[in-house]
Amino acid sequence: MLETAESRGSKPQGRPESPEQPEQVTGVSPPCVGAGAGARRLARVAAASCALLAGGGLAGWIFGIETLKSFVAGQAVMKPNSAIALMALSASLLLMLSGVQRPALLRLARLGAGVGLGTGLVTLAEYVLDAGPSIDQLLFRDDSASPGLPPGRMSPNTALALVVAGLGQLLLAGKRARTVRLGQVCALIALMLGLLRVYGFVYRVPQLGQFDDYTRMALPTALALVLLGAAMFLARQDVGLAALLMNPGTTGLLGRWMAATALGVPPVLGWLRLMGQDAGWYETRMGSALVACAHVVVLTVVSFTVLSVGRRAEIAHDRVQHRIREYTWLQRFMDHTPAAIFIKDCAGRYLAVNAGFERLTGTRRADILGRQIEDVLPRTSAGPLRAAEAEVQYTGRSLERQDTLHLPDGPHHFLTTLFPLTDTSGAPYAVCGISTDATERVLAQQDSERARQRFHALLECAPDATLITDGRGSVLMANAQAEALFGRPRSRLVGSSVHDLAPARTRRRQSALLRAYLTRPETRPMSADVDLTACDSQGREFPVEVSLGPLETEDGLLVFLAVRDISDRKRAEAEVAARYRQQHHIAYTLQRSLMGSPPVLEELPTARRYLASVQDAGVGGDWYDFIPLGPGRTGIVIGDVMGRGLEAAAVMGQLRAAAHALAQAGLPPDRLISALDAFVCDLSEQMVTCCYLIIDHNTAEMTACSAGHPPLLLAAPDRPAHPLDLPTGVPLGIGGFPHECTSRPLPAGAILALYTDGLIERPRADIEDQINRLADALNAALHTYGASSTALEPAADHLLAELLPDDDSHDDDVTLLLIRVPPAARVQTELPSHPRAVPDGRRFLTTTITAWRVPADLVDTARLLTSELLTNAVVHAGGTLTLSVERSATELTVEVTDQGSARPRPRQADATDESGRGLTLIGALAHRWGTRPHDQGKTVWCTLRLTPSCGGDR
């Protein structure tokens, strides 16, 4: 429903209504509270009940049920046209009460009201003209009409009620309160027409529901009209007559009681009087009925009259209270404002001041009000302020000015805002001023300006090209030396990116260095001259040395860059480098020896490629390693030390040895990477990318941790090659950032691709596009050569040919590893910690490996080893035992997991000892054996070598 401006539930206390503004509907009413919410619910129930009564009458015609048509035998029946019109009006009212503002639903609501209005108008026209379109028999044939009356036609008072109800609903949807009031009057008329018929039935006066000799209004129709009129009247409880009843004030409460009295008391009294008349105590029934109806009308009119008067009294009282509170609020607000506030009339007299103005002038408020400015402030300051106030009063515009007042504690700077106060006609009647003590801010601005001038002078005197950038690398300031060095005017330098001052081929790396510097938790000054290059406006490249320093400001961290052209130094270094080419060869040999030859694991097919840089002597920092970690587990590490040369090779050798040792010690990937990070942070300005992963054939999953390394590629049997979604982390050497460890399933037959950035980095090429290109090349290679172990070598050559078409152009080391995850057979069983677990475990082992077609000699050896492992677990540990048997392409592994924490240790048994030889026997017969602790205990394992002909199909 639409609502007027005076609705929205209860008004805030102290907010008077403006009598000058007409009441208008301003939108859709929100959910009401209190009496308003109850009235809205009652209106919906009444409208739905009206629709139910009308639907019942129509159902009576459809199914021939006389009770639904008239309720009481021998009474007039509800006509089909009446039922349809009442249903349309009820549906229209329910749509209006729903509050939905969709245009289609609004049109549908108006259509329903139009149906009711049109039906009533056509019927009245038929009565007046004694002719018409004969709509009375359109739906059903009615033979119940009295002789001489049109069959099937509703009564005239029913038609009139439908016309009034339809017109009232259309008026209720209006936007002005006056229109809504007319709609509510129509609702009351429709309600009264229905009540007349109800009163006639109750008082047994049929003339109240009948015009002349025409058809009488049916009792269901009368009840439906009463419900419809009540629902229409309550539908707009925020406007007009209904607002008098439903407002939350005193008048609303009084009105509801009076309305209840007016609608309830007279009918009851009239009924009691008729009972007395029936007993022979009074006169005719007609007189009593008319008296009762007159009581209702009179009491209703009197009630609304009293409500109107009471409401006006409440509004006037609220307006006065609001004015008083407004003044109190304003004075409190002014007194709690730290600024000095004053209001002056057009003659320059003070009308109001706050406590801040009293403190400023040192004068009490009572001594200020009514006086001129010359009586309060010194005359030297009063004159300019008086002139400014006159200007504001004359122009009608606000004015801001800064004044200096000499107070007892010294001069103070005040920022004063003057603005006019106007009446309803727009004429100024007073001037308001707000003065804020800005002494500290003015002095701070002056100090800041002097400091800025000194800083600019120092910047211009710096011997090197100096740039100041923000956290994103945008140049904020540049000195004259920067203009000369880069061949660009200062206007082009300021606002550009510092990364654009580097050649395109080194831009990405140098940008990474700056980002790495900014991401340090405690950024410190540093210098860098390793492979840093700049270019001027003509495209000439020259080596530079860059010194960086942090500048903490209010706007965040800025970076101070001092750039020096070191072309002369580089030429001298080149001459020195020419004398030591032989040492470069030695460094290359050293680098190859440091990298070593990672072992070839028969159970893990791989293809390995390492290409040294063709732009240097081949000394670089790429390395990789394969570390056996026990049965079914292999550690793989790949890394890249940023930069080239002997230093990078030396760092690479140290990292490879450290990573190998840490991996064999059983560290998980995240702890190993963190240990390497701490190691690199101790080195001088080194940055390394690295990735360490563990492939576990037992669980068919991979656990990996990356420190800024390019993403791994995985080509699974059911999915093409794609980058693995692993947390990248920051490179080693930055420090202070945690490295996350992630596990991913690794299906058998999957192909893993590990590589360094030398394979994908190209000048002016997007790194993401290069990674996608590598994935596409891997897919093409697997499609051409297949995904078997023998296809890895040609696939690796294919990738290098695609990504490095010109072998003489790559200026960085290139490392590529292709790894195929072979399928592994593994079964396990749980055994109790009891001596019978040893024979049960032997039987389980024998059945399993016999099915795998393991040779008989190995079966006997495996049975013996399993007996020793189970015996040790039963004797020295407790809890449930787990026996696991796994076969790979090259090994047969037996594991026994128990809940004991003590690790087994071999000992030398004497000739007379009955025990102590188990581990010695295992060490002599097994290819390898070891212990792996875990949270619930430990696992002791041993392996036996298998020949290629062992076993069946895998």
From TrEMBL:
Name the record gives this protein: Putative PAS/PAC sensor protein
GO molecular function: phosphatase activity
Pfam families in the cross-refs: HATPase_c_2, PAS, PAS_4, SpoIIE
Transmembrane stretches, start-end: 45-63, 83-101, 108-129, 185-205, 217-235, 256-274, 286-309
Domain of life assignment: Bacteria
Entry annotated with the keyword Cytoplasm: no
SUPFAM superfamilies listed in its UniProt record: ATPase domain of HSP90 chaperone/DNA topoisomerase II/histidine kinase, PP2C-like, PYP-like sensor domain (PAS domain)
Organism of provenance: Streptomyces lincolnensis
Region called Disordered, residue ranges: 1-30, 895-917
Gene Ontology biological process terms from the UniProt entry: regulation of DNA-templated transcription
SMART domains, per database record: PAS, PP2C_SIG
Ranges annotated as biased composition (Basic and acidic residues): 907-916
Keyword Repressor: no
InterPro entries: Bact_Sigma-Reg, HATPase_C_sf, HATPase_dom, PAS, PAS-assoc_C, PAS-like_dom_sf, PAS_4, PAS_fold
Entry keywords, A to Z: Hydrolase, Membrane, Transmembrane, Transmembrane helix
